[in-house]
Specification:
- The complex is a heterodimer of chains A (342) and B (408).
- Chain A has 342 residues and is mostly helical.
- Chain A folds into 3 domains: 107 residues, Tetratricopeptide repeat domain (Serine Threonine Protein Phosphatase 5, Tetratricopeptide repeat), CATH 1.25.40; 101 residues, Tetratricopeptide repeat domain (Serine Threonine Protein Phosphatase 5, Tetratricopeptide repeat, Alpha Horseshoe), CATH 1.25.40; 109 residues, no CATH class.
- Chain A is 83% helix and 0% strand.
- Chain A starts with a helix and ends with a helix.
- Chain B is of the alpha/beta class and 408 residues long.
- Among the domains of chain B are: 75 residues, Tetratricopeptide repeat domain (Serine Threonine Protein Phosphatase 5, Tetratricopeptide repeat, Alpha Horseshoe), CATH 1.25.40; 177 residues, P-loop containing nucleotide triphosphate hydrolases (Rossmann fold, 3-Layer(aba) Sandwich), CATH 3.40.50.300.
- Chain B is 54% helix and 8% strand.
- A 6-stranded mixed beta sheet of chain B has the order 1-3-4-5-2-6, sandwiched between helices.
- About 4% of the residues of chain B have low confidence.
- The chains are: A mainly alpha (342), B alpha/beta (408).
- Chains A and B meet through helix 1, helix 12, helix 13 and helix 15 of A and helix 17 of B.
């Protein structure tokens, strides 16, 4: 075997190992191995393309663009280098160049679904939603089981306000890949838009369980769901404040308070039930972490507990006249909480 | 204008304005291009005195240091004449009696004729692992104790089948611990990574995996150590099938079963930074059914690591306890980086002043100020796993650790 053949064989082995590292998400090691191989053969377009891919996945967009450009200087129609270059340019904020590169990729590789997917993603990022939808449909025509394209189509449809179609697209993706965390998360987002809070919460929890890297996003979304749940409870607390106020006024007038106390009791029971249901639907450790991120949620929980306490007191013992003022303050504060985002 | 003239002009300008770091670095770059590394090094050090975090100065300093280190070897025929006032030969003589050999190796034991390249004898023992009392205790309870007491295992009808998975943040000594386990058992140590197994030809990877286990069986007692198990045994549901990893995972599962049931004396250990990416089938009984968390080094371990990385270098007044107390949150690899940087700073200063001086605490302080702990992103992911994906209690140990260290 000649020395050139040995060198090619080693490069091929390295390419195989790098692809394995990339596929298993070990991008740092992939970059190490590909850089080592590039030191032996700095002009290998395949190694340059893989180096660009590793850099892109490590979010070093400038290095990714440089490596992809170097690969394209040797093999101008290389699919991997073209799409990595387009995506890196997009991340660097050079959107027009990225779109042009994406278009060129589609022209050079019209039968490759991944080329269409990249172009559709770039169009989606540029908010050219109808065009993005056409391109992603072409990707799916070429490969109907292309999960990433199904997820992207769902995102595009969601942005176009076609929520039901979007959810259907995510569901198709989940049929093919039941562990696709992005699809699960995005279905939950659609449910949140439809105000199906409990089911949205389940979706966010499942998505983070499937892909821990989505944890930060899930924490934010769960915080949003809990905040919405507590806003609903604040509506009940407003009604409770009014009932307490009436009971307080009745007590001040010396009128019978039985009717107001019964109503207060019923509203208090509803408030306690809603609060328990909301808090029990989120695991304690996650609720703690969400409250650390959104301290306003803690205040809202405290407000709900305090309201329930006042309601329970009025129901059990009736109230002195001062509860008219307490009820008024409770109602106004609850209205304020409904309006303010935690 | 020739380069010499430019250098002359720049030197004059730098003398006039010693605080102009960019100018000084430009001059240093030109000097380095001309092979005048000692002068360039002097300018780099001066720039670093003004701005210790200057990345260009550090990069140039490393380039010059590397070039100076390579010069005697490249010269080939005897030592080169000392240039520009710094006498390297004298400097070497001055430190020769305090600098110990960098690495020592125990003589290799005899192993199988064909396996001399892959199977080693490990001289490392658990006593050589500084600190980490929890990890040592768990190793003793879950692996070493049962293997050392076969009668007890027989009495309790327990077998030593199954493997042990070490997991934790990168750079915290999982491989070193695996070697120590091998040393404790007096067994051969066989380390396997993905590059040793994965081949591009169909069927070749499976054959390699079988060969790995066959080699281990031939060399019993043997600790078979799989590094980066998250790559070799990645979740199959997350694999596309293009890279051939799926077949490697299948053959690893098959071989682990047979290793456990038909082969005595092969102790399978694995290490991973991402146990949550390991295929669930690999964690079933008889495979990697025990997991031990290897966390960041404790104070005692940090003292030991700093001592190990500084021991071969000229030192003066190094307070290891102070280093340990100020490097909480650093991994072993971070500590090694601190020691290297401190040494580089001392060397740069020696070059600048023309007088060799040992590494002092001031250098270590400067190095600690420059280096940030690298395990942060790992703990972010670990926190997500503990919060969202620990319903079965697999990561309770990690959860306790995160709570103790206030990562949550």
């Amino acid at each position: 075997m000649t020395s050139e053949a040995v060198s090619h064989s080693q490069a091929d082995d390295a390419v195989h190992v790098v692809r394995a590292y990339l596929e298993t998400g070990n991008y740092e090691r992939a970059r190490e191995v590909v850089r080592l191989s590039l030191s032996q053969d700095p002009n290998d377009p395949v190694l340059l393309g893989l180096c660009a891919q590793a850099e892109l996945l490590l979010e070093n967009y400038s290095s990714a663009a440089e490596s992809a450009f170097a690969a394209l200087a040797i093999t101008p129609d290389d699919l991997l280098a073209m799409r990595i270059y387009a995506l890196a340019l997009d991340e660097l904020g050079r959107r027009d160049e990225a779109l042009w590169m994406g278009y060129r990729t589609v022209i050079a590789h019209p039968n490759e679904p991944v080329a269409h997917w990249v172009y559709a993603r770039l169009l989606y990022d540029a908010r050219a939603l109808p065009s993005a939808l056409v391109v992603v449909q072409e990707a799916l025509r070429l490969s109907p089981t292309y999960v990433s394209a199904l997820v992207l189509r769902g995102c595009i449809l969601e942005q176009m306000g076609r929520i039901d179609e979007s959810t259907a697209s995510y569901r198709e993706a989940l049929v093919l890949d039941p562990d696709n965390a992005s699809a699960v998360n995005n279905i939950a987002v659609n449910r949140l838009r439809r105000h199906k809070l409990t089911r949205a919460l389940d979706g966010f929890l499942s998505a983070a369980r499937l892909d821990p890297s989505l944890g930060g996003k899930a924490r934010t979304n769960i915080g949003l769901v809990v905040a919405k749940m507590l806003s609903r409870i604040a509506i009940v607390a407003t009604a409770l404040g009014v009932a307490v106020m009436i009971a307080g006024v009745d007590a001040a007038d010396g009128s019978p308070t039985a009717g107001a106390r019964v109503v207060t009791g019923l509203i208090t029971a509803a408030l306690v039930a809603a609060l328990c249901r909301s808090l029990l639907s989120v695991p304690r450790r996650i609720l703690t972490s969400v409250m650390r991120k959104r301290p306003g949620i803690g205040f809202r929980i405290a407000h709900a507990v305090l309201s329930a306490g006042i309601g329970a007191w009025i129901t059990a013992f009736g109230g002195p006249a001062v509860f008219a003022s307490v009820g008024l303050i409770l109602a106004i504060y609850s209205l304020f909480l409904i309006k303010v985002d935690p | 204008m020739s380069n010499d003239a430019v250098i002359r002009e720049l030197s004059t300008a730098v003398e006039r304005d010693p605080d102009a770091i960019e100018l000084r670095l430009h001059l240093a770059g030109l000097l380095a291009d001309q092979g005048r590394y000692v002068e360039a090094l002097g300018h780099c050090t001066a720039a670093l005195n003004k701005d210790p975090a200057n990345a260009d100065a550090l990069a140039l300093l490393q380039q010059c240091s590397a070039a100076l280190a390579a010069e005697p070897a490249a010269a080939g025929e005897g030592p080169a004449a000392p240039k520009d006032g710094f006498d390297w030969s004298t400097a070497e003589k001055e430190v020769s009696d305090i600098v110990q050999p960098a690495f020592v190796e125990a003589p290799a034991d005899v192993v199988g004729e064909d396996d001399y390249e892959v199977v080693q004898r490990s001289a490392v023992r658990l006593d050589d692992v500084a600190g980490m009392a929890d990890v040592k205790q768990q190793l003793e309870l879950s692996l070493l104790g049962p293997i050392r007491n076969p009668e007890l295992m027989k009495a309790f009808k327990v077998s030593a089948r199954g493997g042990l998975l070490l997991y934790g943040p990168p750079g915290c000594g999982k491989t070193f611990i695996a070697k120590a386990v091998s040393g404790e058992l007096g067994a051969n140590f066989y380390q396997v990574g993905i590059a040793d197994v994965l081949h591009r030809w169909l069927g070749e990877s499976e054959r390699s995996m079988r060969a790995v286990f066959d080699t281990a069986r031939r060399n019993t007692p043997c600790v078979l150590f799989f590094d980066e198990v998250d790559a070799l045994g990645h979740k199959r549901s997350a694999l596309s099938g293009n890279s051939g990893i799926r077949t490697v995972v299948n053959s690893l599962l098959e071989e682990l079963d047979s290793a456990a049931s038909t082969n005595d004396g092969v102790y399978v250990l694995g290490a991973t930074n991402a146990p949550w990416d390991v295929d669930a089938a690999l964690r079933r009984p008889g495979r990697f059914d025990r997991m031990i968390f290897v966390g960041l080094p404790d104070a005692e371990a940090r003292t030991g690591i700093a001592r190990f990385h500084l021991q071969d270098r000229p030192l003066s007044g190094i307070d290891l306890k102070s280093i340990a107390s100020r490097t909480d949150g650093f991994s072993g690899a971070d500590l090694a980086h601190v020691c290297d940087t401190a040494t580089q700073l001392a060397m740069a200063d020696s070059v600048r002043s023309g007088e060799v001086r040992p590494v002092t605490m001031a250098d270590v302080d400067a190095a600690i100020a420059q280096i940030r702990p690298s395990a942060g992103p790992w703990f972010e992911t670990a926190r997500n796993v503990v919060e969202f994906a620990n319903n079965d209690g697999t990561y309770d140990e990690l959860a306790k650790y995160l709570r103790r260290r206030k990562f949550r």
